[in-house]
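Worked example (supplementary).
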Amino acid sequence: MKDILEKSREIQKKYSPFITIADKIPDKVEPRSKGRLSGIAISVKDNICTEGIRSTAGSKILDGYIPPFNATCVEKILKEGGFILGKTAMDEFGFGTFSVNCAYGIPKNPLDIDRSCGGSSGGASCLTAASDFPHIAIAESTGGSISCPAAFTGTVGLTPTYGRVSRWGLIDYANSLDKIGCIGKTVKDVALLLSIISGPDEYDSTVLDLPAEDFTKGLKNDAKGMKIGVPKEYFENVDEKITKVVWSAIKKLEDAGASYKEVSLPHTKYSLPAYYIIAMAESSTNLAKFCGMRYGLHLPLQGNFDEYFSTVRAGGFGEEAKRRIILGTFARMAGWRDAYYLKALKVRTKVIEDFKKVFGKFDVLAAPTMPVTAPRFNEIEKLEPIQVYMMDILTVAPNLAGIPMISVPCGSVQGLPVGLHLMGDHLQEKKILQAAYAFEQVKK
Amino acid sequence: MTDYWKIDKELIKRVASNARLKLSEQEIEKFTKQLSDILSAFKEIDKVDTAGIKPSFHPQEIKNVFREDKAKEWKWQPLANTKHKEGKYFKGPRIV
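After joint prediction of all chains, the assembly is encoded as:
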């Protein structure tokens, strides 16, 4: 165990995946050594509460916050003998695609330290790629924050169906979109962790009332009989070399017994504005509770409550958080609410209908995870906010629809990994895991 | 007809005040330009015909969940994370 801690500190020096590294691991682990996660280090994204371990969601406004309780998923991990290795870096509250909006250090891509690990679960993917000891990461996705970092670092990222995993203990970004999931080195790793963290919970009223399943069971080496839909809209504006790699991956699945056909999801391009409007509207209400009174950043109590709260929030939130608060508040204001928020929710219905139509005929959808490979930090600096948002074009629609998705490494372009994105209908995690597992086997 | 997709400095100031967020002049200037760009891209959703379409507040239908209204033992210390407290209470800024 000590070895793992030392290695983690080494990794931290090189790539900065952590916001906090736990220091009292060994004595906590021993008594629980018989569970399914026995001996496996689990890192937790910093927006998920861990009892006694600082949890900041990557934001200065939560500086010094020590949760007095564990998130449900963390409790479940501890019960299975897993131990919490530390808290991983992220874009503040999940607001970002490249893990550069970080109040506590930017994680660097282990494949090339001048490049991004992807976001917002960048620390989780960074540590997964850099570690050589048994480790699986707890990550979280609102609009692509698991798939994107998995694609950029050559790791496997699983985002479950909305409501599959309890959100109790998650520092919310957008309640109707947030999903706790996992990043691991293999499909089996993420299937194992999902089996443990999913299931009903009396503390989350939106969690689905379904018994916990073992997602590692029954994974076959082939994809016989599997019908794959390839949405044509997901190849528009994608780097040509990435398109080629992804198509060759789809052909490999065909070799493994699957059949494929091109399909259309006509509302794909509208999912981006719809997603951002909904996500910002929800996040602006969630961030209202951070005001320097009960936890996190405190200032001397000066001025009336309007002045005090406004000053604390001005100093505690980063630039992207401020932009989203402004846009989100605006989208909910009387006079604009119908044109923005309500309209976006209706477009969301159309996006969900698109998916439902194709899942009537296909088991999984296959597409590239991201339109680009991991960009350099000096390229990211030059992007305007709207250009950053556009990078999420392939991940926002499935997130908006709350369907499960998995990104598996499927090749590379100029030495940088490319992700194959496999999406399934609501609650069809088994199908996407099967497709991803079969692909992993034929790729070998 | 009102153009819902236009934003200016005055509107940003009003929204920031609603959101209890103090912005510097520089930030207001920068956000006005950036948010205008964002909104002109988002305007795209106007092209979707949503007549008669119901809004999806959640990706799947959510059911109400009920439990017995019974007090539970709570082990947490609600004041453990604050610097602003007096006795058993949070201490907040003055109202006026």
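Two points are worth noting when inspecting this output. Chain A touches chain B through 74 residues (CB under 8 Å). The mean pLDDT of chain A is 95.
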